[in-house]
Amino acid sequence: MPTQDHIHAAALAKRLAPLPLDDRLAAIAALPGRIVFTTGLGVEDQALTGAIARLAPGTRSRFGLATLDTGRLFAETLDLIAATEAATGLAIARYSPTPADIAAFADRHGVDGFYDSVEARHACCAARKLRPLARALDGATCWVTGLRRGQSGARAETPLAAFDSADGVTKLNPLADLDIGAIRELAARAGVPLNPLHARGYASIGCEPCTRAIRPGEDERAGRWWWESDAKRECGLHVAPIAAIAVEARP
Length: 251
Ligand code: SF4
Prior knowledge:
Blueprint: H1 4-16, H2 21-29, E1 34-38, H3 43-53, H4 57-60, E2 63-68, H5 75-88, E3 92-95, H6 99-109, H7 118-136, E4 140-144, E5 161-164, E6 169-172, H8 180-190, H9 242-248
Parallel strand pairs: 1-2, 1-4, 2-3, 4-6
Antiparallel strand pairs: 5-6
Helix pairs in contact: 1-9, 3-8, 6-7
Iron/sulfur cluster is lined by residues 70, 72, 114, 121, 124-125, 128-129, 206-207, 209-210, 235.
């Protein structure tokens, strides 16, 4: 059953749809409460970071940037966090897993036990990503992401805005309907650095042991958890808010 939060978010999605990106960001900045943009430093996130950096100071300051430093990121990604801060003047808060959560996972599954089963992999993502994300979103009313429909079949219905009941926030995906060409153009125009791994075939980049380069014709996210058979594999950060999507789809 959709709540008022779902209905308001669906109305917001309709309002954002015809707007160019800068106006979408201005409309998001006008929403009440704390706004958190979680960046994984992928090309979409970099394009969005660049767009935020170019907003007027009063609008730009409404966005708090955060990233999940899982402890298993590529060295190139860690370097990119600092390079992005230097290029844009924006601070990116790092949220890491707790030593207790890492130790509990390692005791039960082994440090690299995520290869052994989907359940173990989800447990690792919960410790290294979901719990740090919960801390990043603590007290937030709005969660901004760089999700895009063209990234994978699992993301094909990503709404521009939807109420995320699980996290208790309005989730905003202002790049949802843009294609990869538009994203690359935005990133280039903003002058933000990109992960050098993209040039080596890594389309979507997560933790080092769980990411490989993709082959021509493969889905952009085919290199994530490639050993698993579920085509819709995700880390659990972005679970589709089904009720909100249903509301948005109404005429
Ligand atoms: S992507 Fe891999 S290493 Fe990173 S949190 Fe998930 S299972 Fe663990």
